[in-house]
Amino acid sequence: MELLGWLLVILAVLLLTGWLGPLLGVVLAIAALPALAVLGVVLFPLLLVLLVLGLVLWVVGSALGVAAGVLGFLLQWGLPLLLLVAGIWLLTRMRRPRLQA
């Protein structure tokens, strides 16, 4: 009981002086180091897979964006110009007379 009494007195002093938070933070940080090391070793392959997946999706998304941009440009400018050229060609082509047998 004497040990518990001393622990309570020390805890009260640490609480009153404001040293309990930093001291508890240091103790918990030191205690968490092995768990974080194991967690880092376990999650590193997952991180690599997610990194490669992100790069692949970035490249595919960029390619789709470029394709959509080119298609939009062609639909906005290419299709009307093609229709205009086709219309002018149909209006101005010379009709050749048919040979009668």
Question: What attributes characterize this protein structure?
Answer:
single chain, rod-shaped, 88% helix, 101 residues, mainly alpha
How would you portray this structure in words?
With 101 residues, this protein is mostly helical. The chain is 88% helix and 0% strand. It contains 2 helices and no strands. It has helices at residues 2-17, 20-92. The longest helix has 73 residues, at 20-92. It starts with a helix and ends in a 9-residue tail after the last helix. The model has no long low-confidence stretch (mean pLDDT 89).
Topology:
Elements lengths: L1 H16 L2 H73 L9
Number of helices: 2
Poorly predicted regions are none
- What does the radius of gyration come to? 38 Å
Strand content: under 5%
The major pleated sheet works out as: none
Taken in chain order, the helices and strands follow as HH
Summarize the structure.
Helix content is 88%, strand content 0%. The chain is built from 2 helices and no strands.
